[in-house]
Specification:
Length: 59
């Protein structure tokens, strides 16, 4: 469990890592994970986390 003071630091670092890497898979089992990563990249974590339009979050 992270202390509240460190949460934003680690979240920012994780988003920078996700943005720097390129992910890909042809395996359909990994499709929800790939969709989630694409969604994270699209709505960068630097925002408030509130989107102006609805989006489908992979399950």
């Amino acid at each position: 469990m992270f202390k509240a003071s460190y949460t934003n630091h680690y979240r920012t670092g994780l988003i920078q890592i996700i943005e720097a890497l390129e992910f890909g898979s042809t395996n359909t089992v990994h499709a929800p994970t790939m969709q989630a990563l694409a969604l994270i990249k699209r709505y960068e974590a630097g925002s408030t986390g509130v989107t102006s339009r609805p989006c489908r979050v992979p399950l």
